[in-house]
Structures are given as C-alpha cells and as structure tokens.
Specification:
Blueprint (H helix, E strand, L loop, with lengths): L24 H13 L13 E5 L30 H6 L1 H20 L4 H11 L3 E6 L5 H5 L5 E3 L2 E8 L5 E3 H11 L1 H13 L7 H6 L26 H5 L24 E5 L8 H13 L2 E5 L6 H12 L4 E4 L23 E4 L3 H21 L13
Parallel strand pairs: 1-2, 1-7, 2-3, 7-8, 8-9
Antiparallel strand pairs: 4-5, 4-6
Helix pairs in contact: 1-12, 4-12
The structure holds zinc ion (ZN).
Zinc ion (ZN) binds next to α9.
Length: 388
C-alpha cells in the first residue's frame, strides 16, 4: 500500500510530563541523560544501543521558520492557509503558477536561514556516539547542513531542489530562482522592493502589512498591477531537449512552459500532501528505526501519519521513546504505557522544553559523564593501600 503524506487537523492532547521529575529544566536534563546512557533494554538483540532521532518543524523555529501548526496545533501564520495538494499541482497549470509565485517570494527568507543550536547539538550527540541516524520531516535541509557526517533521512523530501515529474531529473532551486526572476521581471522588481522594506523577513502578517506587503484573505500576496495568472515558470531542460516518448514539451520564445505541453513539469523535491513517499525512502526510514535501540522525537506533534507510524513501529519493538516538544503530540499516551511517572528516564521521557536550550545542555551533561568515565582509575593499576 502506498504511504501518503496527509495532514492531520484534529486537536492535540496536553502533554503529560514523564517522568514527573522532567517538569523542571534540570530534571528533564537528568531524565534525558539517563534515556541516552542507560544500558539498552534490548541489548540482547545485538543492537548497538544508539538512538534514532525523528525531528519536525519545532526544531527549525529558532532558525526563523514558522512552525505552521504552532504550539497549540493551530495554523499561526495564516488561519485560512491551506497547503497545495499533489493532485492539484500535477493537474492544474493555474495552481502551479500560484504555487511558484508564492514560492518565489518566500525563497529568499528560507535561503538565508541557517541551522540553529539545536541542529548543532544533534551533530554533537552524534560525535559522542549516541545517535545512529536522523529522520526529519523538515524540508529545509538544516540537518544535513549542520551535521554532514551524521546520516540524515529526509522523509518529506527537500526544498533545495526541483524535480521533473516526467524524467525525475533534479535541479538546483537557487538557479531556478534566477530563472523565475528572468521570466517574471515585474515580480522580480516587487520582490526586490519587499526585501528592501524588510516585509519578507517576518512571518507576522500584521508586521508584513505595516511594511507594505498586502495579503488577501486567503493568504496570497497582493502584487500591485500583477495577477497570479501572469506568473511563468520554465520547463524541464532535459525533457525540452528530448521529450519523453509520445509526449510534447513546448515553451514560449523566452522560455516559459506552455500548457500545450504534456510533460516536463518541474515540482519542488518535497513530498506534497496527497503524494506518495517513494518506496526507497519508506524502506530506509523503517530500517533506521529497526537498527536503533531508542527513538527520540524532537519538535514534532507527529501530525503526519508517515511520522506517527514510525513511533508506533518503535513502540511495537519495545523501544524506549522520548519526546521533546512544546505542546501536545498526536496519540502520545500510547507511547508511554511502560514509562513510570516516578522513573529515571531510561524507560521513556516526555518533556515540553525549548530544543535550542535543552539540547546543548544535554550535550554538556553527556560529555561530562563520558569524561568522568574515562578518568576513573583502571582496575589493573589499582594498588591496595599499604596499611591494608
Ligand atoms: Zn524532465
């Protein structure tokens, strides 16, 4: 059965802190330290005792990117905003124009955002030998940027590339931005003006309005004198040069994809809502869960089923589960049935803290513990006291 990316809009429960001692910052550090460093419960299975990370939008908030569900599971950026569905993108030239116009305006903000302290801390935990791999639902590529030496699996794809729906060739998104500027000079002027005003540097609709960026009730940007219908995007260069058999790829004299074409459509290399996750990715993330001894969720409400089912898979294998997320998590009570409220953390941890504060402190705590371990006197050098 294909695994589809679908949104989840039901209300989320309030977090129950586990163990109870993790309700303070220091208590949470102690519990997370125990979660990472206690002997694995499934040591006999031949697993290496490492933890797999599953991260979501919450880890990128400190980089200036909006957590679109917000801490209360609401759409904070724009209440009426609805992401585009895969079938709309593939079937509808008008929907694609609108998608690429919005993406064109939003790209600069994403492109200049950088990984934050929480991503760096994940890399440091990897260097301390604690992490086997990272699975992320984020499409911002901050994990591979922050810790290229630690394996990252991007469950929902990535915005750094576009991909052709016909031939699957991938292209650099930065170059694509230049192509869009050349095809849409009025939009390019408007973008330059909005960047100069600072209106695109904030996600707050009120601040944006103050700085001269008007948005429609449905969240679209009002570009003076320009309609979404006028936005143009290029065709896949490979398909243009060698159209797939039986297909037609046509463009205007200056390089815009024409709706008389039947192939060569470029899509962001993200898994859109309603789109199937490729089997290779599905298998890789399942393997990453199966080879780990523990799973730790960072900044996700597990709203998409593709992420939630990985936790369910870990739970079915008896793996201890940790969740650090501000606010509730979909069906979280199911994951802590074997984690006592008065426990130490090794059976499971649930806390509601800011990742860019707790993760760097956790790195220090684990590093100090490992340092203490290596400074213990070795047994063979132990000398009995002369008076014994
Ligand atoms: Zn192509």
């Amino acid at each position: 059965m294909p695994l589809m990316r679908i949104p989840y809009t039901a209300p989320l429960p309030n977090p129950t802190i586990i163990p109870a001692s993790a309700s303070t910052f220091q208590g949470a550090l102690t519990a997370l330290n125990d979660f990472f460093t206690a002997p694995p419960v499934n040591a006999a299975s031949g697993k290496d005792g490492n933890t797999v990370i599953l991260s979501g939008a919450g880890i990128s908030v400190a980089s200036g990117l909006a957590d679109y569900r917000g801490s209360n599971g609401t759409y904070t950026l724009n209440k009426t905003y609805r992401p585009i569905y895969f079938h709309e993108f593939t079937a509808n030239h008008e929907a694609r124009k609108r998608y690429w116009a919005r993406s064109y305006l939003g790209w600069t903000n994403l492109h200049k955002s950088r990984p934050n302290k929480a991503h760096a801390a994940v890399g440091a935990l990897g260097q301390l030998g604690q992490i086997s791999s990272v699975i992320t639902q984020n499409v911002d590529s901050f994990h591979p940027q922050a810790h290229p030496q630690l394996k990252t699996l991007e469950l929902h794809g990535y915005l750094r590339s576009t991909v052709c729906l016909s031939c699957r060739t991938e292209y650099n998104r930065e170059q694509f931005q230049h192509d869009l500027s050349e095809l849409n000079p009025a939009w390019a002027d408007f973008l330059a003006e909005m960047l100069a005003s600072g209106a695109l540097a904030t996600e707050n609709p009120d601040e944006r309005r103050m700085k001269g960026l008007k948005t429609n009730p449905d969240g679209d940007v009002d570009v003076p004198g320009v309609e979404y219908g006028t936005f143009r995007y290029p065709a896949c260069p490979v398909c243009l040069a060698h159209p797939p058999e039986g297909a037609r790829v046509e463009q205007s004299a200056d390089g815009a994809w024409l709706p008389s074409s039947t192939a060569g459509i470029l899509k962001p290399a993200v898994i859109m809502f309603g789109e199937s996750i490729p089997n290779s990715v599905k298998t890789a993330v399942e393997h990453a869960v199966d080879e780990a001894s523990r799973i730790l969720v960072l900044g996700s409400s597990l709203a998409t089923y593709s992420a939630w089912r990985l936790l369910k898979r870990a739970k079915e294998q008896g793996m201890p589960i940790g969740i650090v997320n501000l606010g509730g998590v979909r069906g979280e009570e199911l994951f802590f049935t074997h984690a006592p409220v008065d426990g130490l953390g090794r059976e499971g941890v649930r806390c509601s803290l800011s990742l860019e504060e707790v993760l760097p402190a956790l790195v220090e705590r684990i590093r100090a513990g490992q340092g203490a371990a290596t400074h213990l006197p070795r047994h063979d050098s132990f000398q009995p006291a002369p008076w014994a």
